[in-house]
Amino acid sequence: MPPVLDAGTYESLRTPRSGRALALDGVWHQISPRYVVSQYVQNAIFIVLAFIAALVLALAFAQTWVWIPAGVLVLVDVFTLIILPRQARALGYMLRADDVVFRRGILWQRMVAVPYGRMQLVDITQGPLDRAFGISQLKMVTAAATTGVQIPGLTQEAAEVLRDTLIEVAETRRTGL
Known about the structure:
The chain is 42% helix and 23% strand.
């Protein structure tokens, strides 16, 4: 038998399935409050970087006009920070018998229902700050480009349980295209 390339590299394999499942009961689920804190940190980093870039341009190249766009960027970012908690409360998902429904938005509200049988991919992603705060983003992809749904701000465990539930239910409800 030929040697395996990574024989002995891993002590154990990580099992992807959590073993738990969510009920298809039509109850709205919210995202984690840690999402708001994570977004505050990311926006604060953006404000600091915008200030540093404006400072470098103003001092090194004597371009005082850069304070105007930098100020506008900071004002927009501060406004985003003010409405962020309300936006986070508006995010949610509901598992029903035939589909998963996702809602978002305050002024421009969007509600998308994705039938289980049309799901092609369920993906969990984490950025570096997301990992630090223990949150993930779950993405569901269908054949139609406009119905792709992203649910940010889920805890890692909630994202894995939701992914496993969606995959399990979708496998039983496959439809032909």
